[in-house]
Specification:
By secondary structure, the chain is an alpha+beta fold. It is built from six helices and 15 strands.
Length: 354
Amino acid sequence: MAAPGDPPGRPPPGPRLDCGSLTPVKPPTGNLLRRCLLPLAVLACGATLAACGGSSEGETAPATPSASDFPSAEGKTIEQILTAQSPSELVVSPAATVFEVGRNRYPFGVFDVSRAQIDDAQVALYFAKSPTSPVEGPLPADWVSLSTKPAYRSQGAGGEGEANSFYVVDPVRFDRNGPWLGIALIKDGEGFEATRLPSPTVGSLPGLVKIGEKAPRISTPTAADVGGDLGKIDTRQPPSSMHDVDFKDVVGKKPVVLVFATPALCQSRVCGPVVDVAEQVKDEVGDGVAFIHMEVFNDNDMAKGMRPQLAAFGLQTEPWIFLIGKDGKVQQRIEGAIGVDELRAAVEQLKQSS
């Protein structure tokens, strides 16, 4: 997911940075960090979460390719796999920045040189800790829709520049902290094209609130706090319906779905759709659950910096969704894009366990 103010899930403007070099490097910082983090992002799909990689609202998902459709990694280095293929002109743009040792979900977008989204690619990812270490892959990607029912679409939804889908690989397993190497292979007729991925850095945000930890008791502004003028606390048009209660008043008393997103100010292809998805899921399966949408910038002004609520959760990017149980502990956390089917399943799981 991109840093606030940057366009997640799309290629960066100007010259491309070699964020995906096959030589491990120190994690980027400052402006370089903001340019290298380009996500869309999603909650890890376990066996209990159906519909990962599926379509939404009647769309037909492209068939997920098989690992056997791609070159084997056995006995090869990641560089050998990369250089055996033709270079691709497509850009594979990661949609997550936070990875930990163990099982991870890796969402991404695919774009052509004109920044147009590609939604019918067959893609597999490969990862390795170093140029000489064993390679994990091929890991075929599922396609996921960002569609919602018309009643839940914000103004401008589906317009030019907004994402309508993304890809995801689950699981990707990292067994060590630090930078990793990644490449993507894209089927091209009977052959393949290859491109480097920005190097994922495992364990890069130790301050982020973890699954199983108590959620920080932050205060979130409500409609009552602004006299019903929701434009002061929500950049979505129209404002979302998720401003009825203050987080501090409900956490530890009932399940909570807390959405950090700024639909207008992040210039994102996914921040708006993520809030739309949350609106639909709230209506469909949200009984007994507090849904709260928290904006990112003070006074909805990028020049005034990020709101302290994000810092309390250890966030440096957005959008994020935290699913918090009745006991006040984080059960799931979702970075970036997510479809209706997957969020619905996650909320159902939250309700069953609370």
